[in-house]
Amino acid sequence: MPKIVDREQYRKELLMKSFDLFAQKGYASITMREIAKELRVSTGTLYHYFPSKEALYLQLVEEQTQQDILNFLAEAGDAKTLPERIKALFNFMVKNEDYFFKQTLLGFDFYQQQERTEILNNQILRKSWEYTRQAIADYLQIKDKALSEFVMIFVSGLLVGRMYEGETISYAQQEELLVNMLTSYLNHQKASIKYD
Q1: Which of 90, 98, 116, 118 might form a disulfide with 175, Cβ 3.0–4.6 angstroms?
Q2: pLDDT value at position 119?
């Protein structure tokens, strides 16, 4: 009897296994042939699921975005207040810091291989950013798009800062600053609406 393969599950397994290879060797340095060899599949099998290295990477970004959000929501729990929700976000970042460093560095490597206009017009990357931004906005209960974009940029910048400065940048201090900034801003917004 022939072996029944869940093609979608197999594709996801190949994607997730390829992340470590990309992170280890870099997007620019690794070839599809090397990825296939390391994953112990034929090059033809790899090309069957992913027509190019770029397609493989972009599908990896999509899959990781969805998984990261699901994992965060599962771990975050039902925090009641904004400070508790921000704490849950920071706890997730701390717990997964090495993984997020690898994602960020891999993203930089990928960007370096592309034309700027290709990156700016890449619908998969835009969709992943927007999906993450919306998930954070929903979790933090922030309706203001500019404010949720600020949180995304703050968190992304914090990760990059930690990559360069290490523990000299304190998650606890940055968490407290973010709580104070958001609380102050939201209170100011409420007061403005109340008096308009």
Answers
A1: 90
A2: 80
Structure tokens at 156: 């992304």
- The pLDDT tens digits for 26-45 are 999 999 999 999 999 999 99
CA distance 115 to 172: 37
Cβ neighbours around 29 below 10 Å, total: 10
| 13-28 pLDDT, tens digit each | 999 999 999 999 999 9
38 within domain boundaries? no
In the predicted structure, residue 46 carries a pLDDT above the cut 90: yes
What is the band of 194 on the pLDDT scale with cuts at 50, 70, 90?
low
CA angle 160, 113, 111 (to 5 degrees): 30
Q: Which residue range is the domain that position 108 belongs to? A: 60-195
Assigned domain for 42 exists = no
Residue 66 lies in a domain: yes
Provide the whole-model pTM. 0.88
Phi/psi region, residue 4 (left: phi>0; alpha: psi -120 to 50; beta: rest), is: beta
